[in-house]
């Protein structure tokens, strides 16, 4: 089955069913964000797997793996130490782990065969990680050091055309926001980019992201997002001037529902599709190599 597809009634029906399961899974992902992660799992271009850094009880895992299930290709590597409490996860009322809840939720969703869970910190599994990634979902440590480390460690595994997505980049977590602005939106290895809810995403296009159109659009997104960094860095929350600044700048970073068909027209695919040109020759060679080895 071709890894580059169009959005159709089958995909829409699968996403509706997946959302029902996502809603039954505890976590901090909105419906809008869950629908977007399903889209990534289903239609992010290329041949490769999905890596999730930060799983908690499996809410985002279910969204991603459901998309992969519809696609019929690849798996989700779900990396999380499942220790609690942690800075991004609440006190679990006496429990010190989310592992049992996570595995139960993945099983109940019928996705166990599509999820390769690794109960570890991301930096510990990176040295032995193998394979290629078409989606990198970062929702782990939200410090600047942690978010930047996750992007740096797994960037070498991204295929040209892969999608990098980070959670909580339009909220009050300084690390995720700062890294997305400074390392992704300001980086010329990325092309199309945007927001969905508090998710920031961009397409990895080494050698092409510096094109004037890509760079200009990323800079436009970085202006309002960057204005939120002082709010997050203050540590005071949304009070006083912080609240005013947040209310002024956040709406200027478009973060509404993502239309699948329009999103597919924005990203590059490896063959001419919509208005998108071909990816690099390296991407074409990679695709042919994968097909020859399958």
Tags for this model:
294 residues, alpha/beta, Rossmann fold, 12 helices, 14% strand, disordered C terminus
Structure description:
Helix 2 packs parallel to helix 3 and helix 6 (144-154) packs across helix 7. Residues 271-294 have low confidence and may be disordered. The N and C termini lie close together (12 Å). With 294 residues, the protein is α/β, with parallel strands linked by helices. It has a 7-stranded mixed sheet with strand order 3-2-1-4-5-7-6, with helices on both faces. Helix content is 44%, strand content 14%. The chain is globular and about 45 Å long. Strand 2 (76-79), helix 4 (99-108) and strand 3 form a beta-alpha-beta unit. The chain has a single domain (9-293), classed as 3-Layer(aba) Sandwich (Rossmann fold). The relative contact order is 0.13.
Order of strands across the main sheet = 3-2-1-4-5-7-6
What is the CATH superfamily classification?
Answer: Vaccinia Virus protein VP39
Number of strands: 7
Secondary-structure element pattern, one letter each? HHEHEHEHEHEHEEHHHHH
The CATH architecture: 3-Layer(aba) Sandwich
**Helical amount:** 40-55%
Instruction: Calculate Rg over CA atoms.
Output: 18 Å
Question: What structural category characterises the helix and strand content?
Answer: alpha/beta
Total number of distinct structural domains: 1
Indicate the overall shape: globular
Major β-sheet annotation: 7 strands, mixed
Give me the number of helical elements.
Answer: 12
What is the fold's blueprint, element by element?
Layout: H1 9-23, H2 31-43, E1 49-53, H3 59-71, E2 76-79, H4 99-108, E3 115-118, H5 122-125, E4 133-138, H6 144-154, E5 158-166, H7 174-185, E6 190-196, E7 199-204, H8 212-227, H9 229-234, H10 240-249, H11 260-266, H12 281-293
Parallel strand pairs: 1-2, 1-4, 2-3, 4-5
Antiparallel strand pairs: 5-7, 6-7
Helix pairs in contact: 1-2, 1-3, 2-3, 6-7, 7-8
């Amino acid at each position: 089955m071709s890894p580059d597809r169009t959005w159709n009634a089958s995909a829409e029906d699968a996403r509706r069913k997946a959302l029902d399961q996502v809603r039954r899974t505890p976590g901090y992902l909105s419906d809008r964000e869950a629908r977007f992660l399903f889209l990534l799992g289903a239609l992010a271009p290329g041949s490769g797997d999905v890596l999730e850094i930060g799983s908690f009880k499996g809410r985002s895992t279910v969204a991603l793996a459901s998309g992969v299930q519809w696609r019929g290709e690849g798996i989700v590597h779900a990396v999380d130490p499942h220790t609690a409490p942690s800075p991004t996860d609440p006190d679990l009322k006496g429990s010190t782990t989310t592992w049992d809840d996570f595995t139960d939720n993945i099983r109940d969703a019928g996705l166990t065969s599509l999820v390769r869970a690794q109960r570890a910190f991301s930096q510990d599994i990176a040295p032995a990680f193998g394979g290629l990634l078409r989606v990198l979902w970062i929702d782990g440590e939200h410090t600047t050091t942690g978010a930047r480390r996750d992007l740096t460690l797994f960037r070498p595994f991204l295929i040209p055309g892969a999608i990098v997505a980070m959670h909580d980049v339009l909220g009050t977590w300084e690390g995720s926001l700062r890294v997305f602005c400074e390392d992704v939106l300001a980086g010329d290895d990325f092309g199309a980019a945007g927001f969905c809810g508090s998710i920031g995403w961009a397409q990895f296009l080494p050698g092409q992201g510096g094109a004037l159109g890509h760079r200009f659009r990323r800079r436009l997104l970085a202006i309002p997002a960057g204005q939120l960094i002082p709010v997050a860095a203050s540590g005071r929350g949304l009070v006083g001037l912080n609240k005013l600044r947040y209310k002024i700048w956040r709406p200027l970073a478009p973060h509404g529902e993502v239309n699948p068909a329009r999103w597919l027209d924005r990203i590059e695919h490896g063959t001419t599709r919509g208005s998108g040109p071909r990816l690099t020759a390296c991407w074409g060679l990679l695709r042919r190599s994968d097909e020859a080895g399958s």
